[in-house]
Amino acid sequence: MVKLDNLTVSYRQHPALHHITGQFASGSLTAVMGPNGSGKSTLLKSIMALLPISGGQLTVLTPRARMAYLPQMAEIDRGFPIDVRDCVLLGCWPAVGAWGGVNAELLARVAKALHAVGLEGFEQRPVGSLSSGQFQRVLFARLLVQDADLILLDEPFTAMDSRTTSALLGLIRQWHQQQRTVIAVLHDDAQVRENFPQTLLLAREMVAWGDTASVLTPAHLNQARALAESWDETAEICEIDKPSSMKVAA
Known about the structure:
It is a single chain. By secondary structure, this protein is an alpha/beta fold. It has a single domain (2-249), classed as Rossmann fold (3-Layer(aba) Sandwich). Helices cover 34% and strands 27% of the residues. It has helices at 40-47, 84-89, 93-96, 104-116, 132-146, 162-177, 189-195, 212-215, 218-230, and strands spanning 2-11, 14-24, 29-33, 55-63, 67-70, 150-154, 181-185, 198-203, 205-211, 245-249. The strands form 2 sheets. A 6-stranded mixed β-sheet has the order 5-6-7-3-8-9, sandwiched between helices. The chain has a 4-stranded mixed β-sheet with strand order 2-1-4-10, covered by helices on one side. The radius of gyration is 19 Å and the shape is globular.
């Protein structure tokens, strides 16, 4: 679904991701882990073409309309005056577009999604009045309505209570069973070991990528911490080995 070939992504010509090679298989469920500042969010934004790549190749083998991205909670403005139903309806945008109307079928999809996340009866509530856990459930309902093949989640459980986390993990497992490709940035080792078959461990460089049990070993985790602590922000600008190329299916 997503192929990385010697991928480098830089800020002010200093790499946030450095020569990453590998692939996210279609239908895979992968956690992206690593110390703070290790390039995890940068990877998701690069896949969504929100950041330019500096070197190597990034190929996404699914149309943009079939991709869904949930950024970190801190990046979302909850002050916008919109109610829960309309927020979830935004998940229909790739299919409906700017001029499409809201019909009974779409409203039924929204109702079904809100039921799936336990928010029946919240349709008219302003999103700004919700708790963090309720708002995250709304965003997952929007993902359900979007019906994407590739789903990118950036720290979806930060500051979530255990009940909300458990419910949303259940939805992620359902997506995996439906052969959707899910890539999630996470921090909780135990949570990843229990729920995510594949893991990519980053420290700007790739430390390990593969079966979660073989990636999250003490040796690999120590290596990631050491790389993060030794990274020199004032190092010379990275020489890019290959021209950059980003490809997304039409």
